[in-house]
Amino acid sequence: MIKTKRYIFLALLIFLTTFNPELPLLKLGFFIIKTVNVSGSKNTDLEKIKKQFNFLVNTSILSVDNKKMNEIISQNEWIHFVNINKKFPSTINVVIVEHEPFVFWKKGNNNLIITKEFTLIEKFSFNNFYNQTQAKGNFDIEDLKKLY
């Protein structure tokens, strides 16, 4: 009985220390991502983001590349963070939470958006923010933080 427990323990130890989610066994069709749903985008091009997340299709849901997803997120200055939900067996839902505009800032020839998190956004469509609070002048974000 003790020898059997040792063999089971050794087998589990070897399996758990050498387990790799990229094994072909896990790609039999049960864990392959077939759809990636992206939602929550107001100020970014939703179709462009969907195309960027398409690298996930036909990969294993157990081996999602977080580094690649973080690169996609950091490329877009509007994205504050992303919630990623795995819906087994074959769907990933990506919910985008964007920065909220706080002030439209005209500094010289530059038009910028200052968000509620005090980050600067340079690329935006002016038509979407014509009702936004406006500020003009040469001041720093730190000055604005003191007022807020």
TrEMBL record:
Gene Ontology cellular component list: plasma membrane
Chief place where the protein resides: membrane
Annotated Pfam families: POTRA_1 (PF08478)
GO terms classed as biological process: cell division
Gene3D superfamilies on file: membrane protein fhac (3.10.20.310)
Location within or outside the cell: Membrane
Protein name: FtsQ-type POTRA domain-containing protein
Organism from which the protein derives: Candidatus Fonsibacter lacus
Taxonomic lineage of the native organism: Bacteria, Pseudomonadati, Pseudomonadota, Alphaproteobacteria, Candidatus Pelagibacterales
